[in-house]
Amino acid sequence: MSSRKTKGRGPTKKRAQRATSNVFAMFDQAQIQEFKEAFNMIDQNRDGFIDKEDLHDMLASLGKSPHDDYLDGMMNEAPGPINFTMFLTLFGERLQGTDPEEVIKNAFACFDEENVGIIHEERLRDLLTSMGDRFSDEDVDEMYREAPIDKNGMFDYLEFTRILKHGAKDKDDQ
């Protein structure tokens, strides 16, 4: 019966099956645990699957108001229901060949509502100390020591990512 539903999907279905068979080998146990925690944060209704409503609720909790088209696009990236194994598979596919600098930028970009490359330092502190793998205030202070923050308290995450990847510019270079 399921073959009728998936008929026409062909290669996508087979690709997903191949990918899920070795997805747990791509990550170490600590990474899998972190992905599980992230999955559980997104799975708002705790049914073991991420659906459109879960994505909407999770994004709303971050202060975003996503449109249906955006949510549909995200859901359509998966070849079927998104359980934890499929979630890992999607991340595995995305992370293969991904530039670590892009991964860091994208992590900060989730909180950049204006999509301009900056986040107010107090908002970022609040997010880092209250969500996910929580930072302590000392951790945030340490990060901010070398961070590019302007006189208005705006944290430039694009420049910060460059610093993490390539090091700070010498005073002579500026």
UniProtKB/TrEMBL annotation:
Keyword Calcium carried by entry: yes
Protein name as it appears in the record: Putative myosin regulatory light chain
Biased composition (Basic residues): 1-17
GO biological process: post-embryonic development
Segments forming domain EF-hand: 30-65, 99-134, 135-170
Lineage: Eukaryota, Metazoa, Ecdysozoa, Arthropoda, Chelicerata
Region of interest: Disordered: 1-20
InterPro entries, sorted: EF-hand-dom_pair, EF_Hand_1_Ca_BS, EF_hand_dom, Myosin_RLC
rRNA-binding among keywords: no
Molecular function, one GO term: calcium ion binding
Keywords: Calcium, Metal-binding, Repeat
UniProt xrefs under Gene3D superfamilies: EF-hand
Coiled-coil residue spans: none
Pfam families: EF-hand_6, EF-hand_7
Superkingdom to which the source organism belongs: Eukaryota
